């Protein structure tokens, strides 16, 4: 039975069969099954797990698989996400940051209140509550942009952080061009403040995936790097290390294993000085985060076994439990991809279901995650649990 569905699938099969005026024997004959098999399915004694069988039943009953499972073919959250992204796009288009342009006459929100609201937006993101954040961002973007125009100095932090969290969310939703716009706005507003520039560059690195972008990340990292690593401020070390991680992931995607290893080793040195359990500038940077990045880099390189080994090491750390839910769920999806690279759909399914249990929106609203669910469900020996999730999401 699909989680949250009050009607067991076997009972729905029976209802649809009767509506089609098919006896159990006639239905069984069309499926190439026995009458006893059909009876056990309808009574819930036997579970429907294989994608091919569910599709065959749906075809005989004249419905699609999503209807058979009691779900809409196009999940409501997908349509709502599209509408939310359109509202964010409209908010980004209402750009009143041109210097010298008359400010629209409307009540101004106090900057300290905006800073708190942006902080709440980041918390919402890190708890993987993406639908709530999609709903909140259009208004927040309008207010921080307005405050920045009125007082660029006072409103700078709020507007940079608002654009950062917007870019981070849009990357999750696979809205690359819009994410690039938000990250570019953050970089533009941060100009002149090396800390804010480095913070904005972290999100820029998430958006950019080209080899040339690696130099942008490294330039930002070296600009914020302390002269003496041992005496470095944890905030600066976290930003510098996070930028090195972004550069390393770009190197991994480009197939540059040597650069990947060297950059992650440098980041690990900084992470050791910062320690786990911190979230300076919303980076979550620390030793555990670097090991998760090693997992992601190995997946990008197609080395699933190495990725699984790094995953097992990282998740045995205390720091694993201290990371934001969003970070942990995203890592579980990365490691599920690693298991699929090693032809292990059972463990891939286990991690995907674990991610879905701790951060449902990370799986259900993130296009990349939905593709991994579909890939796991299509494996010949995929567990029934992942098949049910895939059908619920409408991805197979």
Notes on the protein architecture:
There is one protein chain. With 396 residues, the chain is mainly α. Among the domains are: 9-68, 434 Repressor (Amino-terminal Domain) (Orthogonal Bundle); 332-396. The protein is 72% helix and 0% strand. The protein has 22 helices and no strands. It has helices at 9-19, 24-31, 35-43, 51-61, 65-68, 76-93, 111-126, 130-150, 152-172, 176-190, 194-207, 213-224, 234-253, 257-274, 287-300, 304-314, 319-322, 325-341, 345-358, 360-364, 367-378, 384-393. Helix 9 runs parallel beside helix 11 (194-207). The longest helix is centred in the middle third of the chain and has 21 residues, at 130-150. The protein is globular and about 80 Å long. The model is unreliable at 1-5 (pLDDT under 50). InterPro entries: Cro/C1-type_HTH, Lambda_DNA-bd_dom_sf, TransReg_Diox_bact_type. GO terms for molecular function: DNA binding; DNA-binding transcription factor activity. It comes from Micromonospora nigra. This is Transcriptional regulator, contains XRE-family HTH domain. Pfam families: HTH_31.
Q: What is the residue-mean pLDDT, rounded to a whole number?
A: 89
| Structural classification | mainly alpha
Shape annotation: globular
Helix segment tally: 22
Distance between the termini: 17 Å
Order of helices and strands: HHHHHHHHHHHHHHHHHHHHHH
Helical fraction: over 70%
**Strand portion, in percent?**
under 5%
Largest sheet: none
By DSSP, the count of extended strands is 0
Using only C-alpha atoms, the radius of gyration works out to 24 Å
Low-confidence stretches: 1-5
């Amino acid at each position: 039975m699909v989680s949250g569905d009050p009607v067991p699938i076997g009972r729905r099969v029976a209802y649809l069969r009767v509506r089609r005026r098919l006896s159990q024997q006639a239905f069984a004959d069309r499926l190439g099954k026995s009458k006893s098999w059909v009876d056990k399915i309808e009574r819930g004694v036997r579970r429907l797990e294989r994608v091919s069988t569910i599709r065959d039943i749906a075809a005989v009953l004249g419905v699609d698989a999503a209807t058979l499972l009691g779900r809409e073919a196009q999940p409501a959250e997908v349509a709502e996400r599209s509408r939310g992204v359109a509202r964010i796009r409209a908010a980004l288009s209402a750009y009143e940051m041109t210097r010298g342009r008359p400010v629209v006459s409307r009540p101004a929100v106090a900057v300290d209140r905006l800073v708190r609201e942006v902080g709440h937006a980041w918390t919402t993101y890190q708890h993987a509550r993406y639908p709530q954040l999609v709903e909140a961002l259009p208004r927040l973007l309008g207010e921080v942009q307005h405050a920045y125009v009125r007082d660029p100095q006072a409103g700078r932090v709020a507007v940079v952080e608002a654009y950062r969290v917007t870019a981070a969310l849009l990357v999750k939703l696979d809205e690359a061009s819009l994410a690039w716009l938000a990250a570019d706005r953050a970089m533009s507003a941060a100009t002149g403040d090396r800390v804010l520039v480095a913070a904005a560059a972290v999100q820029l690195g998430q958006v950019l995936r080209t080899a040339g972008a690696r130099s942008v990340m490294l330039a930002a990292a070296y600009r914020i790097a302390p002269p003496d690593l041992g005496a470095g401020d944890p905030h600066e070390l976290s930003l510098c290390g996070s930028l090195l991680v972004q550069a390393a992931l770009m190197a991994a995607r480009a197939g540059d294993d040597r650069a990947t290893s060297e950059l992650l080793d440098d980041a690990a040195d900084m992470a050791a000085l910062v320690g786990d359990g911190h979230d300076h500038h919303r980076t979550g940077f620390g030793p555990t985060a670097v090991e998760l990045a090693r997992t992601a880099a190995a997946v990008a390189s197609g080395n699933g076994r190495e990725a699984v080994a790094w995953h097992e090491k990282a998740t045995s750390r205390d720091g694993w439990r201290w990371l934001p839910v969003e970070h942990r769920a995203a890592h579980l999806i990365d490691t599920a991809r690693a298991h699929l690279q090693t032809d292990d759909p059972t463990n891939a399914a286990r991690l995907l279901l674990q991610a879905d249990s701790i951060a449902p929106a990370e799986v259900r609203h993130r296009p990349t995650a939905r593709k991994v669910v579909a890939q796991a469900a299509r494996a010949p020996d995929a567990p029934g649990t992942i098949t049910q999730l895939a059908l619920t999401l409408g991805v197979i």
